[in-house]
Amino acid sequence: MKRALPVLVLSVAGLIPVWRYAPSHDTGSSSATEAAAPASTPSVSSSAGPGGTTTTVVSGSSIDTEKGPVQVEVTFEGDRIASVRMLRQPDHPQTTAAVPKLIEETLQAQNADIDTVSGATITSDGYKESLQAALDARG
To answer: Is the pTM of this model over 0.85?
Structure first.
């Protein structure tokens, strides 16, 4: 009888967190679904700009990350990267702060070999992967 009371109390104390557990209600897809979903293929469109310069717009693959999807669109003027625009990005304060830095580094480097932004590593990796897909699609 002396052991029964502590066992009962500890059993109830151990079950309380299980009863109170509420799973998160993520509005996005699950990580298992994201891992299984294929990335979209890059798309390319070209036009002649002023002075005969060819302007090419390339959308990179949509990369599913733990924080959310990341996809870039790269505008080329001739052989140079003229601009980069985020088509999809996670809704996260660190991502919002990191995107301008990533774009600035891309314009300076003119390739996908850029540094990861501290505090936004997952987004940075997704950005670089989508950027590289756009660069590869252009050729």
So the answer is: no
